[in-house]
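In this notebook, the sequence line spells out the residues, with the fold written below as integer tokens. This is how one looks.
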Amino acid sequence: MKITDYFEKSKGQTLVSFEVLPPLKGGSMSDIFNTLDPLMEFKPPFIDVTYHREEYVYNKRPSGYYEKTAIRKRPGTVGICASIMHRYGIDAIPHLICGGFSIEETENALIDLNFLGINNVLALRGDARQFEDKFIPEPNGHKFAVDLVRQINDMNHGTYLDSNIEKGTPTDFCIGVAGYPEKHFEAPNFATDIEYLKQKIDAGASYIVTQMFFDNANFLSLEMLAKKLELMLP
């Protein structure tokens, strides 16, 4: 079921969901199940699974120089989603990020998700790598979340990167995006931040997820402004 369907069926009642952080490389699904099993009594309609891009570490060589090496510390987002859906019979929402993916790799990941029957995704730009002061996209990758949303929406309309695919099978992803009640730290002001949010909705996003906030008034202000700009979707 799509996330927007859950919101509509709730009729204003509060839904409780959870977010899973993939274990470090070498971990196992049993650790996740041991955490989630006792939480199932709360009947979560869905569970989010985060994605983390590769990180760089510096290993000292015998020569005394340091070698920069890219590693993936937390792989497994797609597999964890499939395992959660199989074990609990509830929807899992993978986070899909710009960082670490080329547009071709993004398309392949979306195809895998579609084949697994996963039809909800949270489209995010992602954070800068450790030791980097700004976000740097992958070569031939997306620089902004709105571009990722457009690619997913294109696939929902049967448009793939390969122009030779004339009648591609449309996917049916419900696309979530991030909103920031206290403004994204990179945005110059709140008005600009809202404009970026509107662009993501116009590009095909269906619902908004906020980051953690510490003042309810900020969230209520964002909600009011979003309704005024007709950003709030069912």
